[in-house]
């Protein structure tokens, strides 16, 4: 029997993850008190093959009950029951934004600021994260991208040794992405915005792409960027980094940065890297 324990930071996507596993044929239970995990696992085993894949969510919503999780997992180990831990996390900025959008209170910040609740939760989950078999950072993931990552791990047998590379195009006039690990400025390239026929187009259009990439400096930049990324990736993995955010910016985030981000995405996909692409400012009103 495959038994998956889903946990992690509040607002990181645990509820979505368990829905995706349910769609994949897992028998799922949300917010199961840790004290019941062993008993629940035994019941599933007694079905004699009737239940072959199980996933549960347990997190700080359980209050004091959640403190029993470590002892419950140790009890499973003593009983010879194997389990896997899927840990979901996201950046502080992303979690705050999600909570403000949903207008919900953080479980550990009932009487205070959301950020304090998030920091307290990170400390509480530190040891559990270290035990996790899989860690997914949903900071720059859409719902569909999270679904693909779940499929990659639990259907395709994927592993997490490979870095997840997030490529973000952006406009400097809207601010630099706060979570960017590597930030590149492509405003040195000629700007298609000032050519009337391309002003309303974007880097997703062939006409703009051909214009941007016809310049020798654009091709040389891409070559040097790929060389640097190839150099850095093994060292990031060695240091335990699970996600790399590469931000590429131009003035408005519509033409040059989109073209270069698309190009980098394709090149890294060809090298069989796990890549996620986002055009942050493509549809801003000023563009």
Structure overview:
One of its GO terms (molecular function) is GTP binding. Keywords: ATP-binding, GTP-binding, Nucleotide-binding. GTP binds at residues 59-62. Residues 1-154 form the RapZ-like N-terminal domain. With 287 residues, the protein is α/β, with parallel strands linked by helices. The chain folds into 2 domains: 2-154, P-loop containing nucleotide triphosphate hydrolases (Rossmann fold), CATH 3.40.50.300; 164-279, no CATH class. Helix content is 40%, strand content 18%. It has helices at 14-23, 37-45, 69-78, 92-102, 114-124, 126-131, 143-154, 206-213, 216-238, 256-270; strands at 2-8, 27-30, 53-57, 84-89, 134-137, 164-171, 182-185, 243-250, 274-279. The strands form 2 sheets. Strands 2-3-1-4-5 form a 5-stranded parallel β-sheet. The chain has a 4-stranded parallel β-sheet with strand order 7-8-6-9, with helices on one face. Helix 2 (37-45) links the parallel strand 2 (27-30) and strand 3 (53-57). Helix 1 (14-23) packs across helix 7 and helix 4 (92-102) packs across helix 5.
């Amino acid at each position: 029997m495959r038994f998956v324990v889903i946990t992690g930071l509040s607002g990181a996507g645990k509820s979505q993850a368990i829905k995706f596993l349910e769609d994949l044929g897992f028998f799922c239970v949300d917010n199961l008190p840790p004290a019941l995990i062993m008993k629940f696992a035994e019941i599933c085993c007694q079905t004699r093959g009737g239940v072959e894949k199980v996933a549960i969510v347990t997190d700080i919503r359980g209050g004091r009950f959640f403190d029993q999780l470590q002892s419950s997992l140790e009890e499973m180990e003593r009983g010879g029951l194997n389990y896997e831990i899927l840990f979901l996390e996201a950046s502080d900025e992303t979690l705050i934004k999600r909570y403000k959008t949903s207008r919900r209170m953080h479980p550990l910040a009932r009487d205070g600021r959301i950020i304090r609740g998030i920091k307290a939760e990170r400390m509480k989950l530190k040891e559990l994260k270290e035990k996790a078999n899989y860690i997914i950072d949903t900071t720059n993931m859409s719902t569909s991208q999270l679904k693909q990552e779940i499929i990659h791990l639990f259907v395709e047998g994927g592993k997490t040794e490979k870095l997840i590379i997030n490529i973000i195009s952006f406009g400097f006039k809207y601010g630099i992405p706060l979570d960017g690990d590597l930030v590149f400025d492509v405003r040195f390239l000629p700007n298609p915005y000032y050519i009337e026929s391309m002003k309303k187009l974007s880097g997703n259009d062939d006409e703009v792409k051909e214009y941007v990439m016809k310049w020798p400096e654009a091709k040389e930049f891409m070559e040097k960027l790929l060389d640097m990324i190839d150099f850095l990736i093994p060292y990031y993995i060695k240091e335990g980094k699970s996600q790399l955010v590469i931000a590429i910016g131009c003035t408005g985030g519509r033409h040059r940065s989109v073209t270069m981000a698309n190009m980098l995405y394709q090149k890294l996909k060809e090298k069989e890297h796990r890549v996620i692409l986002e055009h942050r400012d493509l549809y801003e009103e000023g563009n």
